[in-house]
Design brief:
The protein is of the alpha+beta class and about 350 residues long. The two termini are about 25 Å apart. The model has no long low-confidence stretch (mean pLDDT about 95). The strands form three sheets. An eight-stranded mixed beta sheet has the order 1-2-12-3-13-16-14-15, with helices on both faces. A six-stranded antiparallel beta barrel has the order 4-5-8-7-6-9.
């Protein structure tokens, strides 16, 4: 397993609308794997592997590059940075965080905290309140000099390293750099088999976390026959969660994503991939979410429509700096993608 690539992808900063660094990393990594590569006006990287025959089916893998983060919205006269979120944060996870403020001229380490009194001088009722995201600010430790280096619109990400812990990977951006990793490694493996029965498009999309925006434009341009939305999903197999809400159990295989609030997967395609997983002895689990969405929905609804399904990896603690996946589940997701693409 190419752990080094996953580490580099996860640690590269890139929030919605600012995915350029991730895109550059992927562009260098996939050199020679595709027949065509373009960057669309939204900033998505569209990679194509040609089929050996005309009229071949057109399959699209959608792998979003962005991670949740912030954009600087205001710099106080004292040099404190106020931010607006791009992606869904739970404010309970934002207290006392180390962050990286990314500018055109360099990156600056900072700390994020909410406004208000520290524990020593706060009242008991104050300590029970969870401030909204808008109450948090970033301190760069440079006072008014912050005005000289940071501009409104610069972006902010959590500053946490990628970790390998036993049979798990932990990162602040497994959502959704694991999909970028899967998109690259699946084509690398497919290249060893020389299978070209389908025209394969891997779209490394932008701005998924704010509404599947890059996937919509990319899918309209490609007009696939089949769309595979590659993403994380919940793994709530942890204390305090009712069994019915677990979604996936880590270590039990990739997630065959049937439904969320953005799309309902093609029934025949779900059955087809399920049968293939059983035949190849690839562990899997069917998954559904009551809320949330993923890029497969954009492929399904583009132009005249496409058959679509999600291939997911169960992730604990999503949208925190401790996102965790099982190595075996990631391998299972890679195995089913290679097996499915090799069928053509």
């Amino acid at each position: 397993m190419n752990t080094d690539l996953l580490k580099r992808l996860c640690e590269m900063p890139g929030v919605p609308g600012h995915e350029h660094r991730v895109r550059d990393l992927i562009t260098d990594e996939v050199e020679g794997l595709f027949d065509k590569m373009t960057v669309d006006p939204m900033g998505s990287l569209l990679c194509q592997r040609d089929a050996s025959k005309s009229e071949a089916p057109k399959i699209m893998l959608l792998c979003h590059m962005d991670e949740i983060g912030f954009l600087v919205s205001h710099i106080s006269k004292e040099g404190f940075l106020y931010v607006q979120p791009v992606g869904g944060f739970d404010p309970r996870n934002l207290f006392s965080r180390r962050v990286l403020v990314c500018t055109d001229d360099g990156d600056y380490k900072g700390v994020m905290n909410p406004g208000g009194k520290p524990i020593h001088i706060s009242a008991p009722e104050d300590r029970k309140k969870v401030p909204p995201v808008g109450d948090f600010f970033v301190d760069l430790g440079m006072g008014k000099k912050a005005h000289d280096v940071v501009k409104v619109g610069d972006f902010v990400v959590m500053d946490e390293p990628f970790l390998e812990m036993g049979d798990k990977f932990v990162s602040k951006a497994l959502d959704n750099r694991i999909a970028c990793w899967l998109g690259i490694e699946a084509i690398r493996e497919l290249g060893k088999k020389n299978g070209r029965g389908a025209e394969i498009h891997v779209a490394f999309t932008c701005q998924e976390e704010v509404g599947l925006r890059g996937a919509r434009t990319a899918s309209f341009a490609i007009k696939p026959d089949i769309g595979l939305g590659i993403d994380v999903t919940l793994s709530c197999d942890t204390p305090g969660i009712p069994e019915k809400d677990v979604t996936t159990n880590q270590g039990e295989g990739f997630g065959l994503h049937v439904r969320d609030s953005s799309f309902i997967a093609d029934k025949a395609l779900v059955s087809e991939i399920e049968a293939l997983a059983i035949k190849k002895k690839i562990p899997y689990q069917r998954t559904m979410l009551a809320a949330g969405g993923q890029d497969g929905a954009a492929a399904q609804q583009a132009a005249a429509g496409a058959r679509a399904v999600g291939i997911t990896v169960g992730t604990r603690y999503i949208h925190t700096v401790t996102e965790m996946i099982a190595k075996d589940d990631l391998q299972a997701a890679l195995d089913i993608l290679v097996a499915y693409l090799s069928e053509f």
